[in-house]
Design a protein that fits this description.
By secondary structure, the protein is α/β, with parallel strands linked by helices. 45% of the residues lie in helices and 13% in strands. The protein has one domain: HUPs (Rossmann fold), CATH 3.40.50. The protein has seven helices and seven strands, in the order βαβαβααβαβαββα. Strand 2, helix 2 (42-57) and strand 3 form a beta-alpha-beta unit. Helix 2 packs across helix 6, helix 4 (105-120) packs across helix 5 and helix 6 (171-193) crosses helix 7 (216-232). The longest helix has 23 residues, at 171-193. The radius of gyration is 17 Å and the shape is globular.
């Protein structure tokens, strides 16, 4: 039986929802974030606020919330070529993927997460990747996650499990998951304290949260909010 988890936690909507889910399921939960030279580095500040607020507002989860780890992976910035690591306009590439795609990012993240889980004695790696309502990133697909789980278990001689709670749901359902897990308090926390905007903008608070309102991440989040509110009546 799995009792411990490492949540890949960026400080955004998806990873915060995954963190809440992990806290509701596992006895010990640690978090892992990465500083890879991302333009929206404000998410690294949001992480601390979200963790503090989860512990303060949900006392049933506070004893389960363990250490936080932030690791440097600026090699992704050195490779370059992405609008998430360089000051270029968001656009589609010739290969059909948005230039927000950072090649190898999730593969590298999961490899490092596996090593950390090994050292920390954690059994499950939780990540908020999704291929139902996403930007087309190939390293977010279910097949990629299954392949990475197999590779990690072979390479580490472990029985780690990669858990992807959001894989087959859209952003509206992700809002609903937050509602189901923590009620209006968790929804409000996601709106107020998480950060998803690729531009790093936090000077405008919309119904769905802070952001520029026009980057791909903001558009997905806003449309999901609108669909969710429409379903809620």
């Amino acid at each position: 039986m799995h009792t411990s988890a490492l949540v890949m936690f960026s400080g955004g909507q998806d990873s915060t929802t995954c963190l809440a889910l992990a806290l509701s399921k596992y006895d010990r939960v640690e978090t892992l974030g990465f500083d890879y030279g991302q333009r929206h580095s404000v998410e690294l500040q949001a992480r601390h606020t979200v963790r503090q607020q989860l512990a303060a507002q949900f006392p049933q989860w506070a004893p389960k919330l363990g250490e936080d780890h932030v690791l440097q992976l600026d090699v992704l910035q050195q490779i370059g070529g992405s609008s998430l690591t360089e000051d270029v306009a968001f656009a589609m590439q010739a290969d059909g993927l948005p230039n927000t795609f950072v090649p190898g990012r999730n593969l590298l993240f999961l490899t490092v997460a596996g090593a950390l889980a090994y050292r920390r004695g954690l059994q499950v790696i939780v990540t908020g990747v999704c291929e139902t309502d996403f930007s087309g990133y190939p390293d977010c697909r279910d097949d990629t996650m299954k392949a990475m789980q197999l590779a990690l278990n072979l390479g580490l001689a472990q029985r780690l499990r990669i858990e992807t709670p959001l894989m087959w749901i859209d952003k509206a359902q992700t809002w609903q998951m937050a509602q189901d897990l923590g009620g209006q308090a968790l929804v409000d926390l996601v709106v107020r304290d998480t950060h998803t905007c690729y531009a790093g903008t936090r000077d405008a608070l919309h119904d769905w949260g802070y952001g520029c309102g026009s980057c791909p991440a903001c558009e997905l989040r806003a449309k999901g909010w609108e669909r969710w509110r429409a379903m809620a009546g």
